[in-house]
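ingest -> validate -> predict -> emit
validate: passed (alphabet ok, no gaps, 119 aa)
predict: started
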Amino acid sequence: MHGQIWLGSEAFRARMARLVASHDLHDVPRIQTQPSRPTPEVLPGPVAQRFELNPDEILDRTHQPAFQAAVYLLRRVANLPLKDVSALAAVSISRISRIQSTTNRELLCWPADGAGGWV
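emit:
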């Protein structure tokens, strides 16, 4: 692991994920316990399902909430660089950065119980 990132092949990360799951990780930062991350190819599926869209529609910008969710997840969950997300989404790096910042602010305002609307 280097800088909170697990380095190695997919098989290595899968093996580490199994090992991590079998240990008490009470005092280990959560990010250090996630050796495998979803790939950019996998992320449109859950986003499409959540928004009841076809996965091919996620990055075409016709449904902005789905597009923004996908961009955010590509940055934060798949941990892709801004440049790569920008290329996948066919928008500027600054647009990707704005989506990420806006989503971060919105998530910080969501009630802890998940009920209700935006605060």
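The chain has two domains: 1-36, 44-109.
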